[in-house]
Design a protein that fits this description.
The complex is a heterodimer.
Chain A lengths: L5 E2 L2 E5 L3 H13 L3 E5 L2 H8 L23 E5 L7 H10 L8 E5 L4 H9 L4 E4 L4 H20 L15 H5 L1 E4 L8 E2 L4 H5 L10
Parallel strand pairs in A: 2-3, 2-4, 4-5, 5-6
Antiparallel strand pairs in A: 1-7, 7-8
Chain B lengths: L1 H4 L5 H8 L8 H25 L5 H18 L2 H16 L2 H43 L1
InterPro entries (chain A): ARR-like (IPR045279), CheY-like_superfamily (IPR011006), Sig_transdc_resp-reg_receiver (IPR001789)
Subcellular location (chain A): Nucleus
Pfam families (chain A): Response_reg
């Protein structure tokens, strides 16, 4: 069969500031994620394949799906035009993409803003500057939809519900591409993380 | 980093150093360059906005929000302090306070830039020393 490719989590990062994009990209790469960065909410929707107009009921509207599967969207809150909150709403309103976890980042600690985002379905709200430690929480969010899909396959050995406290174990598990029929295989070496640093990242400019 | 940078950069700068590795050996320098490019633009915008009277405090506050954000992310503690003060003056509608604070901010920013330039130069020459030493060992 050849080399087994480990499926890497692919994160779509949205921020209008070039500096912040550079930061979040490196943070995500360091957390062994593949990253695509875009500078606006509308570009994010474009990347996902969602048109601007709301087309959730239109059967013809599942436009070209992107070549990559996005496992998580992380977006700045304050952006001109479409805010991170607006983007969150659009994603959660979309039948095709509502299962993608969304994380909001903001440099301002506004409790009303935070609860509004969480109520709208954001998984996490990070205060900037985002730290490496914050990103370790993301892995469990990205795992849930994957594990749920895996559990629907007959050969899967995975329990559909993983509790938060097991996230340290989840961190070192890797899943194969969903298209593969191979079973998942737990990776127990911490050195794996280092070797996974050589990621191919795509950056949208 | 030691005494040379003390007070100018906080623990956030160390977080940046954690992100640097063999695959990304110049990350800190790159992100510093990005910060100074960004902040130069913001300083320019604020300068121009401060020349227009009466002052548009909302606009000034918005610029400073961005400036504070990136200054925080790079660990520029003194610059960040000035940003916070500036924003308070904006909210109070205190033009004189804004002008004064902005002068201080520009000074701190310029000092930080010099210090970081020196820091990266020292790092680069340290690396050259190490390489020389290794070569001499062969």
């Amino acid at each position: 069969m050849g080399v087994v490719t480990e499926s890497q989590f692919h994160v779509l990062a949205v921020d209008d500031s070039p500096f912040d994009r550079k930061m979040i990209e490196r943070l995500l790469q360091k957390s062994s994620c593949q990253v695509t960065t875009v500078d606006s909410g509308s570009k994010a929707l474009e990347f996902l394949g969602l048109r601007e107009s709301n087309e959730s009921d239109d059967p013809n509207a599942t436009s070209t799906s992107p070549e990559v599967e996005i496992n998580l969207i992380i977006t700045d809150y304050c952006m001109p035009g479409m805010t991170g909150y607006d983007l969150l709403k659009r994603v959660k309103e979309s039948a095709a993409f509502r299962s993608i976890p969304v994380v909001i980042m903001s440099s301002e600690n506004v409790p009303a803003r935070i609860s509004r985002c969480l109520e709208e379905g954001a998984e996490e709200f990070f205060l900037k500057p985002v730290k490496l430690a914050d990103l370790t929480k993301l892995k469990s969010h990205m795992m849930k939809p994957k594990l749920k899909k895996e559990s629907e396959k007959p050969a899967a050995e995975v329990k559909p519900e993983i509790e938060e406290k097991e996230s340290s174990v989840i961190e070192i598990l890797t899943l194969h591409q969903e298209l593969d029929s191979e079973q998942q295989e737990p990776v127990l070496s911490n050195n794996k993380r280092k070797s996974m640093e050589e990621v191919i990242s795509t950056t949208d400019r | 980093m030691g005494k040379f940078m003390q007070g100018y950069l906080d623990e956030q700068f160390m977080e940046l150093e954690e992100l640097q590795d063999d695959a990304n050996p110049n990350f800190v320098e790159e992100v510093a360059a990005s910060y100074f490019k960004d902040s130069a633009r913001l300083i320019n915008n604020i300068d121009q906005a401060l020349r227009r009277g009466p002052l548009d405090f909302n606009r000034l506050d918005s610029y400073m929000h961005q400036f504070k954000g990136s200054s925080t992310s790079i660990g520029a503690s003194k610059v960040k302090t000035e940003c916070t003060m500036f924003r308070e003056y904006c909210r109070a509608g205190n033009a004189e306070g804004c002008l004064r604070t902005f002068q201080e901010l520009k000074k701190e920013h310029a000092t930080l830039r010099k210090k970081l330039e020196h820091y990266f130069q020292v790092q680069a020459s340290d690396q050259l020393c190490v390489i020389n030493q290794l070569q001499n060992m062969c």
